[in-house]
Amino acid sequence: VHIQLNTATKLFSRASTSEASPNRRVSPLDMATPGTLPHLNRQSVHRALKMARLMRCTIPEWSRFDRKHYFYADMPAGYQITQNERPIAKSGKFGFYVFDEHLEPYWKE
């Protein structure tokens, strides 16, 4: 599951997430400036864990971020930070009501 969190800064940089014209909310990390290091947005991690608990996910003792290598013109670093091997949460359930052919609601996970 991918979710968008309402935070003031990006997940791995201190650049603002507020609305602006293109290329206005960019930090040296976003531009892949050599020597820059990611800065993890702690609020995002707390919110992701809150969502994981709401979805009754399994939350491991530790997780890690991985580099997924891409070579695209719009990705100057040549990689995307992801959680491929050890995600922050997994195996959750999301429930919602759906309607059958007689418009009777029933719960589905």
UniProtKB/TrEMBL annotation:
Top-level taxon: Eukaryota
GO biological process: glutaminyl-tRNAGln biosynthesis via transamidation; mitochondrial translation
Chain ranges of the Aspartyl/Glutamyl-tRNA(Gln) amidotransferase subunit B/E catalytic domain: 1-95
A single GO molecular function term of this UniProt record: glutaminyl-tRNA synthase (glutamine-hydrolyzing) activity
Chain spans, region Disordered: 14-35
Entry keyword set: ATP-binding, Ligase, Nucleotide-binding, Protein biosynthesis
GO cellular component, one term: mitochondrion
InterPro entries, A to Z: Asn/Gln-tRNA_amidoTrfase_suB/E, Asn/Gln-tRNA_Trfase_suB/E_cat, Gln_synth/guanido_kin_cat_dom
Protein name: GatB_N domain-containing protein
Species name: Caenorhabditis japonica
